[in-house]
Amino acid sequence: MLLAAGVWLAYTHWWGRGDAHPLAYRDLTRRIGRVEFTRRVTGVYHSRGALQRLLDATMPGRAPKAPALDYSHDEVVIVSLGPRSSSGYSLRVVRLVERRRGIYLTLRERTPTLGEPIDPHVTYPYRALAIHGTAKPVYVKLQGR
Predict the structure, then answer these.
(1) Nearest 5°: phi and psi at 128?
(2) Cβ(81)–Cβ(42) under 8 Å?
(3) H/E stretch holding 43
(4) Backbone angles phi, psi at 140, to 5 degrees
(5) Mind listing the pLDDT tens digit for each residue in 63-103?
(6) For 88-115, b where at least 16 C-beta lie within 10 A, e where not — what string?
(7) Looking at the predicted structure, is the pLDDT value of residue 23 above 80?
(8) Is the pTM of this model over 0.85?
(9) What CA–CA distances, in Å, run from 71 to 19, 45, 75, 125?
(10) Most buried in the list 5, 9, 100, 125, measured by CB within 10 Å?
């Protein structure tokens, strides 16, 4: 019985991680503009209304408009780091792959180095990505600095 459980776990782990291929996306970050996410946010939005509610809750009375997309085919993934102390911080996409069990998004936070010219004001690094919609869950991995 224990052997069968081990084989099953190994098979499901291998099967779920297999068949990986890069997934195309559109970066909507500039299109949406400045959003002051005061906390870390990771979410997938399947409608313009749901995305607009996030933006309205984040910046009441001054939220940018959610982009017009074909939400019947696209979904928007938002990943925010929360506030940072200077202009030297950013968030970049390392890779986005689709596997049998889900969509895997890897991002890396860029931090300023000592002596780097930066503006000392609060920034809110985030990424908004439009991906062709699937029914698969999205898993986000944030790599270290």
Answers:
(1) -125, 115
(2) no
(3) strand 41-45
(4) -110, 130
(5) 999 999 999 999 999 999 999 998 899 999 999 999 999 99
(6) bbbbeeeebebbebbbbbebbeeebeee
(7) yes
(8) no
(9) 26, 9, 6, 24
(10) 125
